[in-house]
User: What shape does this take?
Amino acid sequence: MEDFSKKLKDAERLAARSGVSRRDFMQLAMMTGLSVSAAGAMFSKAEAAETPKKGGTLRMGMEGGSATDSLDPRTYADSVMIAASLAVYDSMVEFDNAGNPTGALLESWEAKPGAVEWIFNVRQGIKFSNGKTLDADDILYSIGIHRGEDTKSPAKGILAQIADIKAITPSQISVTLSSGNADFPVILGDYHLVVVPNGFTDWENPVGTGAYKLASFEPGVRLVFENRGDYWMAGRANFDRVELLNIQDVAARTAALQSGQVDAVNRLDARTVDLMKGNNALSIVRTKGTGNRFCFVSRVTSPGFENKDLRLALKWGIDREKIIDSVYSGYAVPGNDHTLDAFNPYYNTDMPQRAYDPDKAAYHFKKSGLSGEITLSTSEGAWGSAVDCAQLYQESMSKAGITLNVKKESADGYWDNIWLKEPFCAVYWGRRLSADQTFTQVYGSGSDWNDSDWRVPAFDKLVEAARVELDETKRKEQYFECQEMIAEDGGMVCFAITDYLDGYSSKVMGVQPHARYDMNDNRIASKGWFA
Amino acid sequence: MLRLIMTRVFLGCVTLFAVTLLIFAATEILPGDVASAVLGQGATPETLAAFRIELGLDRPAYVRYLEWLTNALQGDLGIAMTNKREVLATITPRLYNTLFLAGYAAAIAVPIAIILGIIAAINEGKWIDRTANILTLGAISVPEFFIAYILILVFATNLGWFPSLSTVYGDMGFWQKIHVVALPALTLTMLVMAHMLRMTRASVLAIMSQPYIEMAFLKGLPRRRVILRHALPNAAAPIISVVALNLAYLIVGVVVIEVVFVYPGVGQYMVDGVSKRDLPVIQACALVFGGAFVLLNTIADILAILVNPRLRHPR
Assistant: This one.
């Protein structure tokens, strides 16, 4: 019975966070022996908590900040500044929890056939924190700072496809692309692209349309925000005040959450998160398989690796499940040798998951006609546990009779000296906004970052065709084929995609997993509320 | 005396100059620069070049060093390359925090260590001597973060007496800060006690084997009086210098403690600066740390002269 009441309590909390349907809830409740009407009443009560309440101070403790942070959107690289930015500024385009683009300050849009010409409608009646009303020029300026010859913005590359952008009226913008892209609104959802007033340059004192205004900012220490009042999106901006503490150490973050000094933390440690699950004062939100994609990447133009059979041997010879269990305590999903994740609408669900098969690995290695050892360069600098993963890989390969030589490189300068240079090395990739972006940046012939050096004209053609395809069924088929090509022929062994693990005090509501980032797309300050 | 102080100050400045030169050279040797560190994996050759020109990194290293040096000599520590904030304005509150924590820990550790050291010397070989030795040596024999986590587990998570986050802000009152910073101060106390206690004990005992001490005993003075009046003033010099060394450690060596307790000190600032190759930040921190070392050691030398009659009146 105690087990049931625990489950019931969990279900109640889940219902409050809209994670459980009425039907599931009733089933669970009735298993514990409640009558139908009592269970129904209970669900309504739990669901009532879904209506956001106003008030309170949210204290967040996050990793991913530094004493060198700034509120200039052209310098964002990690979670703290993304979360801070999304509290003060608004995006042009947002994403719903399933990852589909939805209108934010650009309310709606329309593409002419071919997806070259776009019309965006600017949301009306929005006021900046300095009192100015939002119009098309603000949007043009906010995009413009990421474009042009001398900008250092990381978003410069994704905006290079804009051939012409202009305001038709104060509430409408037309964009002409250099070539069609059906995903263009997704591009405008990039976290660097937030909206500031036309001509704005004073990044120390940010002016935005966001839910909060900045009260104080000590880089690497703390950001404090105060509610601006009267936010345009219903159900958002519920806290009076938000404090965002930089807590780089995961043990310190965990202790702060457990002792109630903060209400929300990001990036819990997979090795200790199970110990916190029994604690009813806390809730753990797990977003499956949208985190970093961990890969061992071979350059298919390097001697030996140009042999497709060798690459297949590398893919069959890795024990994904074992690495996930022992290195990530089960909090990751196996990768299928490409970097798209299952949250992407175009993820190939028909392709079987590649599993560990030492016989197949041995078969392909023999067929390749190669002998001797294969050298894998790895480092803590690639990602924290890259060396552990490489050692487990070595062990599973040796069962297939293949000798893998694990070479540990210096963490400093890893991306400069090893990545894109050594023939076989450890790499992680982050989530990209769209399938198109993933395929173009990671595998496209024209990409500087194509780390497997796998440049296949037929693949490029397919990606180009899919980019302008407005027929969803056709597009899906094309993207499915792309994934098959990469997994079968490419040089990448993508073996795991990590989960995001957020920790909250159980009184924080609105904490669903999100397809893009942890902490409900790093917008918990704006989306959450206290029960 | 004045001449000695002047020499010390001059040598200190030379040391600081050497430190900044070395740090600058070391940062230049490290692979990557501020542009590639900030833009990370997402950098393209174009954005890198734009960022470098904006920061003036396209100029030769010696030009940049001389420019930094000229400005620093005029009291201008420059602007952080990464977030364009004034280094001086950022480092001042952090330096205050570092000094606060160091002072807090020293205020607990120094009196206890010296008194315990003297008591241990008076009672050489007895249980109190052994207990003090075992406890303090035990404390420095485990890594600092281990002590820190144990203290957090006991006093923050289980008992709830002190917070596990020791972040302090400008708007906090003095006593509130004392409460918030208790755990890191306690951790540091345990780390520096052993060194000072052992040194006090050893130098007092070394003096105790001198003939003039034997004379004092033969006069019939009690052991306590012999130690406090006759032995201690002559043992003071090494004690003072070991205290100074430990104070310097409390200022410059506490990065790990700052990370574990999320304490906004200079150490964390320097680590962030190094990981982003932000030279003005690194140089400013190096100056602070180097300056702390030079200053404390100079003070220790001067004090050692003042307390020792033989050094005070050289023949």
